[in-house]
């Protein structure tokens, strides 16, 4: 009988200590909210709002010492244009709208201020942008595998970091650069693995005068390199961006579109920063759809084999059923009651 797991197991994800949805303790500057307002709201138009250009380089899993891990030979890419400035303005207007800030702000021990779970009702432009076939085709091109948003609650996760003193930030950056060193040790987010196979990170801030803000990648041998953001299979951290008043990033989690590619997504990193009813409904729906497609395809295959009078393949069927049992067991691990300490 073939082995149930013929690929390296995914790394263990450590989530924030935050167990339940928590609102930020510090309000965002009113100037940030006011500056995001627009006189005219637009609908998503891929011809106008998509500004994709291929990245200058895509690192492979082999190049970073993780060949055979993950669901794609591609690991990460250099930054690349994806949305137009007009699209970013429309998204910022939705993110910093009164209704979104009232209903969709979260905080955790990882990030002090986030916006997530906006949905189509509160952020139709952002939602349509990430569900656009044109957008997903370009992202899939970079990912090396066809991907779709993990589920709607993660369209999208916006990490917000704001400085009250621009001059102080610039001073720190200048001092670091003056002696020939860089800001590699100034982390914005701790070393971690994401909960989903891929993420796409969009910079929502003006980067003029900004130093840093990259993502540091730690190889299995301990070597650290800089690149664009990673996800489930690669240990990484966001470095602080110095020299600006804000660092706002939009992070959208992605999973394989095909139900026949293994899905090792977990909820560890998002359970404590989500509305659990919405999160569990959406997670359950897409996972059961995957299971449904797999069972339907297997049933069709078995029907053809029976009609052709083929010998029944016991090891193959047991292997298939064990894989589906492992898939269901993984769901049982993720769908849990959250208890307070």
Radius of gyration: 22 Å
User: CA-to-CA gap between the ends?
Assistant: 44 Å
Principal-axes geometry comes out as globular
- Helices and strands, in order, run as HHEEHHEEHHHEEHEEEEEEEHH
H/I helix tally: 10
What does this structure look like?
Residues 1-29 are annotated as: Disordered. This protein has 341 residues and is of the alpha+beta class. It has ten helices and 13 strands. Residues 1-5, 166-186 and 228-234 have low confidence and may be disordered. It has two domains: 30-258, Jelly Rolls; 275-341. Strands 3, 4, 5, 6, 7 and 13 form a six-stranded antiparallel β-sheet that branches. A three-stranded antiparallel β-sheet has the order 10-9-11, with no helix packed on it. The protein starts with 29 loop residues before the first helix and ends in a 7-residue tail after the last helix. A hairpin with a 7-residue loop joins strand 3 (105-106) and strand 4. It is globular.
Write the layout of secondary structure elements.
Elements: H1 30-35, H2 46-49, E1 58-60, E2 74-77, H3 85-95, H4 98-103, E3 105-106, E4 114-115, H5 119-122, H6 124-131, H7 133-143, E5 147-149, E6 157-162, H8 166-178, E7 198-203, E8 211-212, E9 215-218, E10 224-227, E11 235-238, E12 241-242, E13 246-256, H9 276-307, H10 314-334
Antiparallel strand pairs: 1-2, 3-4, 4-6, 5-13, 6-13, 7-13, 8-12, 9-10, 9-11
Organism: Fusarium duplospermum
Protein name: Fe2OG dioxygenase domain-containing protein
Region (Disordered): 1-29
């Amino acid at each position: 009988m073939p082995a149930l797991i013929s690929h390296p197991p995914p790394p263990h994800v450590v989530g924030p200590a935050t167990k339940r949805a928590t609102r930020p303790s510090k309000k965002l500057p009113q100037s940030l909210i006011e500056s995001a307002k627009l006189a005219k709201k637009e609908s998503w138009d891929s011809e106008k709002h998509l500004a994709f250009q291929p990245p200058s380089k895509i690192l492979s899993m082999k190049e970073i010492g993780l060949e055979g891990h993950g669901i794609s030979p591609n690991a990460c890419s250099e930054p690349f244009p994806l949305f137009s400035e007009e699209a970013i303005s429309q998204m910022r207007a939705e993110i910093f709208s009164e209704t979104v800030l009232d209903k969709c702000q979260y905080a955790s021990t990882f990030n002090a201020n986030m916006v997530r779970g906006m949905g189509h009702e509160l952020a139709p432009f952002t939602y349509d942008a990430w569900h656009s076939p044109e957008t997903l085709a370009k992202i899939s091109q970079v990912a090396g595998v066809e991907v779709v948003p993990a589920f709607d609650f993660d369209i999208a996760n916006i990490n917000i970091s704001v400085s009250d003193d621009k001059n102080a930030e610039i001073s720190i950056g200048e001092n670091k650069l003056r002696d020939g060193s860089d800001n590699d040790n100034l982390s914005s987010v701790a070393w971690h693995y994401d909960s989903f196979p891929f993420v796409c990170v969009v910079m929502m801030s003006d980067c003029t005068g900004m130093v840093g803000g990259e993502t540091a990648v730690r190889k299995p041998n301990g070597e650290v390199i800089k690149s664009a953001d990673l996800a489930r299979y690669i240990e990484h951290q966001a470095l602080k961006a110095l020299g600006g008043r804000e660092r706002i990033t939009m992070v959208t989690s992605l999973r394989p579109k095909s139900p026949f590619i293994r899905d090792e997504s977990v909820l560890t990193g998002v359970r404590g920063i989500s509305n659990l009813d919405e999160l569990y409904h959406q997670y359950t729906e897409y996972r059961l759809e995957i299971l449904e497609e797999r069972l339907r395809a297997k049933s069709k295959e078995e029907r053809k084999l029976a009609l052709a009078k083929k010998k029944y393949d016991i090891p193959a069927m047991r292997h298939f059923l064990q894989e589906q049992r492992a898939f269901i067991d993984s769901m049982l691990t993720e769908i849990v009651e959250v208890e307070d300490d």
